[in-house]
Amino acid sequence: MAKVLMKGNEAIGAAAIEAGCKYFFGYPITPQSELPEYMAREMPKINGVFLQAESEIAAINMVYGAAGAGARVMTSSSSPGISLKQEGISYIAGAELPCLIVNIMRGGPGLGSIQPSQTDYFQATRGGGNGDYRLVVLAPANVQELVDLIIEGFDIADQYRNPVMILGDGMIGQMMEPVEFKKPKKRELPEKDWATTGTKGKRKPNIINSLYLAAEELEEHNKRLQEKYKAIKENEVKVESYNIEDADIVVAAYGTTSRIAKTAISQLEKEGYKVGLIRPISLWPFPYEEFNKISDKCKGVLTIEMNTGQMVDDVKIAVNGRFPVYFYGRTGGMVPTPNEIAEKVKESMEVKSNGCSI
Amino acid sequence: MAVVFEKTRGLTDVQTHYCPGCTHGIVHRLVAESLEELGVLDDTIGVAPVGCSVLAYKYFNCDMHEAAHGRAPAVATGIKRVHPDKFVFTYQGDGDLASIGTAEIVHAAHRGEKISTIFINNAIYGMTGGQMAPTTLVGQKATTAPYGRDEAHAGRPIRMAEMLATIHGAKFVERVAVNTPANVRKAKKAIKRCFETQINGEGFGIVEVLSTCPTNWGYTPEEALKWLEENMIPYYPLGNFRTPEEVE
Ligand SMILES: Cc1ncc(C[n+]2csc(CCOP(=O)(O)OP(=O)(O)O)c2C)c(N)n1
Ligand code: SF4
Ligand SMILES: [Mg+2]
């Protein structure tokens, strides 16, 4: 298929439709409104449903109903709206239903700003709703990858009966890039024989539920969930890394921040520095093991984020004391420049021992 | 031998957990019988609430989906949009529907969502131990209104049927009670008519059922029925507020 030039937010919609998603429930919020607007235009053409809900709470509960009914379904929002969806996300995870949730993050806390940010890393990877659950969290760095992850995300959701979140920032939503819609790798997807479709008098009722009143039963359920999460950790880690076996310092960054970091790294290379990069694509499961490949001569790992330091916690777990871990972040919609990052890399290399690791 | 009575196929054989004299059980049976008699049981997906009827998914003999507190109409919307040819109903209490879930019920009605709602108004939060509901009567005691509901502080009880009847998309709205055999028969008729509103593709329907909670009201089952008649019916008049024929 030929490449087409698309804006990130619209490419999400096109990719979802390509993946066979026929149901979209959402509520307007900047900077992702082009997506519901796209769906409002396109869904009727394929006999699908776009429905503007009365709130994000209602939208995610419509997703909960539609996913229980066996449909490929999605919703999208931005940070404050994603906060409202947490109740529903927890129920969907508890009831083990597949769906896709897109968060095009903006600055926070509270109403924050409408500028790009990566401020919801904790909420996405730790679970902003109640209970011991995990989302598969995928963080694209360009529009092509966004499209690929949306298409694959639906399959991952179906394979594991688990909600998948695409975590992007305002920049990727607004970015125009050429994209191509490719078939994802083939997966064995289980039959949705658990869905609420009416018994037709031919089977026992199907029940979609996350309630287990007996403590033993809930513990069993939680153990089963953990088994599933273990399988996801084993099979679904996605990471890009570069030059880490030979680096004097490694930068860790995800999403659009990683693109800026790459520009900084090529600048530094010209100046003779050996800088590696680890770019987690799956934020959960986090690519902890990738950090073991960093050579012993490395002087430290510098995490760059558009927040005040969230992924850096996972980087520290991954590094496990082998090197000092440094952090540089901009917030509120401020985007770090390649020069700023290059300066921070140089500063970090000058720090002796564990001096100013955070 | 001639069969004179059979339990409806619309209910499973699971024993319910409701307190003795609680009218949730009566309403379950009316709903189940209606589904069976209208021939939709095997094509039905029910949505259970959070409240005393949280385990309704074990009692109705059809596909069921357990919603979060108050969100049943949104969940039902998702299901119905995926399966427009199936019958979808919600069963909700007054805390669920008239407090935490007001936005969801109002907008399901407002969209004219082709679902049916059974709304159990027992003027109390039964499940959590008798706290004040938006429907608790003025002067009525609740654990969070220990001196009785004070209108100046908590407002007057909300009349959901009247309010929903002002919404164009709500095509069938009726309030019934299940305190006497005659009223139970009327309730069944209303539930069937409400369900037909969906089956005929006419739009959203709701039946508000005045119901008892002897446990949290602190009455015997019989006293509770009497209290309902003497206190609830005067404030919550029974009757039809909307039928599809009335909406142009
Ligand atoms: C988000 C949330 N808030 C509060 C509760 C606690 N809770 C469970 S049931 C209920 C009230 C139920 O009352 P009602 O809907 O009137 O049903 P009834 O038990 O009277 O039939 C409450 C407040 C909850 N489960 N979830
Ligand atoms: S607490 Fe009240 S509403 Fe709940 S089952 Fe008992 S009597 Fe019924
Ligand atoms: Mg109640």
Structural write-up:
The complex is a heterodimer of chains A (358) and B (248). Chain A has 358 residues and is of the alpha/beta class. Chain A has two domains: 4-235, Rossmann fold (3-Layer(aba) Sandwich); 239-350, Rossmann fold (3-Layer(aba) Sandwich). Chain A is built from eleven helices and 15 strands. The longest helix of chain A has 21 residues, at 215-235. Chain A is globular. Mean pLDDT of chain A is 96; it is low at 353-358. Chain B contains ten helices and seven strands. Chain B is α/β, with parallel strands linked by helices and 248 residues long. Chain B has a seven-stranded mixed sheet with strand order 2-1-3-4-6-5-7, sandwiched between helices. Chain B has helices at 24-37, 56-59, 72-82, 94-100, 102-110, 151-154, 160-164, 181-199, 214-217, 221-235, and strands spanning 44-48, 63-66, 87-93, 116-121, 170-177, 204-210, 239-242. At the A-B interface, helix 3, helix 4 and strand 9 of A face strand 1, strand 2, helix 3 and helix 5 of B. Thiamine diphosphate (TPP) binds next to helix 4 of chain B. The site of iron/sulfur cluster has 12 residues of chain B, from helix 9.
Largest sheet of chain B: 7 strands, mixed
- What is the end-to-end distance of chain A? 47 Å
Number of domain modules of chain A: 2
Structural class of chain B: alpha/beta
- The CATH first-level class of the largest domain in chain A comes to Alpha Beta
The total beta strand count of chain B reads 7
Which regions of chain B have little confidence, pLDDT < 50, spanning 5+ residues? Answer: none
CATH level-3 fold name of chain B? Rossmann fold
What is the SS-derived class of chain A? Answer: alpha/beta
Which CATH class of chain B? Answer: Alpha Beta
Q: Which two protein chains have the largest interface (Cβ within 8 Å of the partner's Cβ), and how many residues from each?
A: A-B, 39 and 36 residues
Mean pLDDT of chain B: 97
